Amino acid sequence: MKSETLPMAPLYITMHDADNVAIVANDGGLPAGTVFPSGLTLVDKVPQAHKVALVDIPEGGEVRRYNVVIGYALKPLPAGTWVHERLLKMPPARELVGLPIATIKPEPQPPLEGYTFEGYRNLDGSVGTRNILAITQTVQCVAGVTDFAVSRIKAELLPKYPNVDDVVALEHTYGCGVAIDAPDAIIPIRTLRNISLNPNFGGEVMLVSLGCEKLQPERLMPPGTIPLIDERNVADVGSSADAKLDVVCLQDDAHVGFMSMVESIMRQAEEHLERLNARRRETVPASELVVGVQCGGSDAFSGVTANPAVGYCTDLLVRAGATVMFSEVTEVRDGIDQLTSRATTPEVAEAMIREMAWYDAYLDKGRVDRSANTTPGNKKGGLSNIVEKAMGSIVKSGSSPISGVISPGEKVKQKGLIYAATPASDFICGTLQLAAGMNLHVFTTGRGTPYGLAEVPVIKVATRADLARRWHDLMDINAGTIATGEKTIADVGWEMFQLMLDVASGRKKTWAEHWKLHNALVLFNPAPVT
After folding, report:
1. In the chain, is it the N or the C terminus that has fewer CB atoms within a 10 Å radius of its CB?
2. Coil vs helix vs strand at 336
3. Closest CA to 437 of 132, 224, 195, 206
4. Residue 376: which residues within 8 A CB-CB, separation 6 or more?
């Protein structure tokens, strides 16, 4: 990446020497007639983050950014022209055949040793960054009762257990009125199951059921699913290795009236709170981090500042032995060749291709084409189409080899850089990364979003200094300093790495935690609704 100098002067940024467009970096954009230090003169007023033609581009000519064709000019575009989505024809999607397979073999990087955080060790070998009681719901019907009970638990019980960070209800819209035996129903079921076993919940599993729903507790949590805590949660029947399924069923005859249901939930919750409260943080290596990286409300700066900094931090985490997941199928689909070439083995590359093909078929069933991804906000932020957006999204994955692939709702079981196949929707992606086992989340944004999750700390990274200033009490890191030349990508990447260790240790809270900004969980359900 190179940029024009003098931050106070007109400034544009290119990503590759072969690019024939650049983005305007100045706050508020620049008026027509502006002359850059390079001699380029703007023909049009160009908003901040939007593209300007660096040379004359003929009708039908390639428009290049990241040294990738992001579109074809629909009319002649003289140098200095504002280049936006209405002037471009989007290239076709890359076919999933003839791709480079495990062709890039980077030199191994030296291990990053000696970095630790204070976490909660779990019996299954995982490590939590928070100590939370999660109450799982088998069906949406019980959400109101559970929410009422959780409010009382927080007010009346939680103060008695100072070592427990929070109580959360894992609310969702699944569980009944669905084709529960359809092949793709496994996706939402395993997603909810694996979220319930997230490292931040300490192995404590509590369910609230209605009783008549299709997703029965035993189907959600089959024998052997829940780890044993001690003799108090051993089942009375069956194998001694099976844990008792702790269920409050609202339709049980024992419940007489609403408050009876609420008090049952509170009574069961207190048993779990007692065990969680006995836990203490201990020093663990940075390799125990399981980080999900994601972007939302993206703009053209996302691929210039925040996402490259996340990519640099991703490489640091991989060197430290940690697990990092990047996701969002439609936002990496147009760079599939970049991904398959970085796979550690042909099997990993083929797994990525299978996930892309599955999602292509899913979109085709709904008669949705890939142009649906780019939002009005993305376009206002300078991203013309999904090809350009994909190039900026992929850089969150850094440069490390891709060592594994998991399907939606699956739990990650290996270290290194992992492709976790998810839709691009912020809430569905976050939900699926929770199910995969993440204990720390990093979320970049250019347009701005108050996104957060109750179940895991979310570090928010602003792509632009203007956003970081305006949303000073929502953004944890200002990556806009990269565009202005105040900091390098490496500077911000290291800052992010250190902040992760502090947040994971509980030494610092993110702004989303401070304000308790928590979005709903959304289960990805490609199965039919009945």
Report:
1. C
2. helix
3. 195
4. none
